Amino acid sequence: MSASPIIVWFRNDLRLADNPALTAAAQASAERGAPVIPLYILEEETGDPWPLGGAQRWWLHGSLERLATCCARHGSPLLLRRGEPGAVLETLIAETGADCVLWNRRYAPAQTARDAAIKERLKARGIDARSFNASLLAEPWTVKNKSGGPFKVFTPFWRHLWATLDPPLPTRAPAALKAPAPAPASDALESWDLLPTKPDWAAGLRKRWVPGETAARSRLADFLDGPVGVYGTERDRPDHPGTSALSPYLAFGEIGPRQIWHAARHAADARPELAPGVEVFLREIGWREFQHHLLHHAPELPDSPLDRRFADFPWRQDAAGLQAWQRGRTGYPIVDAGMRQLWETGWMHNRVRMIVASFLIKDLLLPWQEGERWFWDTLVDGDLAQNAGNWQWVAGCGTDAAPFFRVFNPVLQGEKFDPQGDYVRRYVPELDRLPPRWIHQPWAAPTEVLRQAGVRLGDDYPRPILDHAVARDRALALYNERKGKAETAD
């Protein structure tokens, strides 16, 4: 009598190497000769408040294509099903006689609640249902401060993690996976309509990215081969390729943080001159851990300000201003370059993310949740904890946030981090011929300079939709008013 199959439920862990659920399945398969069924479910009817955005759906299609190829090469094809996950699993168990379902944990509040309910249902039926950690260096509930509670400030969190963390070495992909016979019926990936067609807005994504585990490992290797050495100084320069650009691969689990951690530490050991850059880079991985730590302990993070003084902040409603920001038509070149980079490539340099977020929140005085939602739909690296935590950080309403009175000046930020204007020229080509002195403030350029550059303000490039100095004063006045009321109430 053949052994009952083992289902490995892939989610945001779309890789074979260092995949704890898959490793456990392969080990059990080797011990008892059980087939392994790799499964991905396009989750529907879950009521998830944060379904995949458009750019994430594009990435998912490419990632599943490559995962399917890898699974087939290892012997067991990837099974695609869609629907409510619990119902899909129960149907597949009935079809195949599977007695074990393994998966790697997710950490968004709606997902953790749903996963717990599914595990309970499966165990009640006598199914071996187990989950593992594939996405974080440390589970959020295991990292505690000296009082035994959660950390609320990043620096002590990171010091604790750096001093105590010893993540297990990454595991290799299984040598082979035994396929079930007969193979269960699978959806065709194309039937899921993950790709945009009318219109097809993904040309820039296709040009910029190659999803998948192989591309993730190649990108990490290229980054650690040299660029990481200057990461500490170059990471804030959007005009230079100074970052790893690993964020979408991490978001979809095509590479895991343990793989990054050990590869980076190995690079620093082998080439000591890289060590300072490696430490700064790993600190950014630590920031990702911190955001997931916050989300676990404050599940309201994506929706509500953690600093309750901002609960009734008098945000403006300005549809025209929001649309100008979304389309990269604010008249501030560094802001517009960032928003156009986002639309074209599904990604934006981290320094510029802070600049555009500050502009939306503190210049336009629009709710940070508007930016959070736009980023979620347009970023290929959408990560609920990261997205929500970073927007609250800029808005000044998180637990360890930049103060609200820190207002980014888009002209000075552009001049400092894009001094020659190369980044702006790449994404705002109508300003391409402006000299560096004026490219971050074209409205201040002499008429003859604009004429020679072929720039017609208000025609082919907008005039600023607001005066930054006036907007800054308005924002600070509102903040000080709210602060005064809060102090009086205290």
From TrEMBL:
Keyword Lyase among record annotations: yes
Gene3D superfamilies: 1.25.40.80, DNA Cyclobutane Dipyrimidine Photolyase, subunit A, domain 3, HUPs
Keyword vocabulary terms for this entry: Chromophore, FAD, Flavoprotein, Lyase
InterPro entries listed in its UniProt record: Crypto/Photolyase_FAD-like_sf (IPR036134), Crypto/Photolyase_N_sf (IPR036155), Cryptochr/Photolyase_FAD-bd (IPR005101), Cryptochrome/DNA_photolyase_1 (IPR002081), DNA_photolyase_1_CS_C (IPR018394), DNA_photolyase_N (IPR006050), Rossmann-like_a/b/a_fold (IPR014729)
Record text on cofactor binding: Binds 1 FAD per subunit.
Binding residues for FAD: 231, 243-247, 281, 381-383
Enzyme nomenclature, EC number: 4.1.99.3
UniProt entry tagged with the keyword DNA repair: no
One Pfam family it belongs to: DNA_photolyase
Transmembrane portions of the chain: none
One BP annotation, GO: response to light stimulus
Family: Belongs to the DNA photolyase family.
Protein name: Deoxyribodipyrimidine photo-lyase
Native species: Azospirillum palustre
